[in-house]
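## retry 2 of 3
previous attempt timed out at serialization; input unchanged, resubmitting
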Amino acid sequence: MRWTIRGKLAVIVLSTAVLQAILVAVDLEQERRERASLAAIERDYLPLIDLGNDAQRRFTDLTRKLEDAASAQDLAAVEATRGDEAALIAELGHAPPIVPRDALLALDQAIDRWYLAATDVSRRLIRGESGLELTADIARMQAFQRQAQAGIQSTVVLDRGKLSSAFREVRRLISEAWLLRMLIRIGLVVLVLLLAVGLALQIVRSLGALAAGFERFGRGEFVTAVEVRGDDELSEVARLANRMAANLEDLNRKLQARQAELERVNHEIEAFNYSVSHDLRAPLRAIDGFSAAVVEDYAQALPPKGQDYLHRVRAAAQHMAELIDDILRLSRVTRAELRRSRVDVTEMARSIGEELARAAPERTVQLDVAPGLTVFADARMLRIALENLLSNAWKFTSKAARPRIEVGQRPEGPGFFVKDNGAGFDMAYVDKLFTPFSRLHTTDEFPGTGIGLATVQRIIHRHGGQVSARAAVDRGATFFVELPGDDKEG
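## retry succeeded, writing output
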């Protein structure tokens, strides 16, 4: 069995997994021991904080009540303290297991002795007794009181020394676990390092040959193959690289042939554009010019129907010229190189609006452009797209009572929208909206060639963006232009 890269990696992974499993087991055991120690502290020591304070407070309150009852000569108040003494004894019964039961029993007896002596002294003082015997009983009662107080202090008040010892034990467990984890991690690092060094030496030798081969491939030299060393995975990579180089060499030859074919087609397109621009325009100008001359010079000799025919010929020639101009513009948009920069859409839209207003001074259109609109695009091509959008909005609001056009920021991200309150369209035909020569209104309603929105879509797609529309018949239309940000290149 050969010692492959995959085998070494498997050993590294398996060793790491085993040591990690041991580390997890150590962590779980240590966590169990720490939890047990902390639970013991919580169970045995922390309750003594409240119990000791409450017991001392109850004992002090009981002592004060007996003293107040004796001072007030209130025998009923003395008898009422029995419940307080019973509550104190009951509370001591809730002491945690760490408090010895015999110590609790001795404390209960000490409190009983003191309470019996204190109530007896209080009754006798209320009855007005005096003398040496009462004085001796008071001294004995005070001795019982000190014994009870000392018993509470030693039995149920938290011993900070024992608590510190318990926390020291927890810290010891944590330190031992940390040391064990460090030893396991060091062992893991040493093992992985030894295996990695062996693997690295094998890889470096093969990578040297691969690097030299790929450097040649990067220079376009696909003839010289990569040197194959050994019989491991990198050797297989070298064989695949050689196969890839042979395929790339073949593809490179095909690509060169395809590029030559593309250049030939582009030359044909340029020749066609030249033909359209010069050869077709001249006959159209002649048709339009001679038709105009006939109308001007021989209008009286022609009947009204003949004059109408000539007007139609001129209109058709002019429409054909517009179609040619739009086709050429669409062709240039498709082939033109993009030069992106930060473009001020606000200023551009206002400038186009002023041009539209000068071209049609008889119209009053409200143009609202949001301030601060900018995009990252080719300024020249974006102006063509925006001119088409605003010209459409200007055209289709011609029959609105109060025509209004709005240019604003897309709420979803980079880009803008152009909104109008004009004729709108039926959303059922929105798929035809950006198709060249496809129109949703007749030329009698609104003149045009059907190229404008197709041009807009081509420009926005060239930028890697999207253009969409939302409208309703007689309720206007909104065109949304989505453009990528500064980090996207076209």
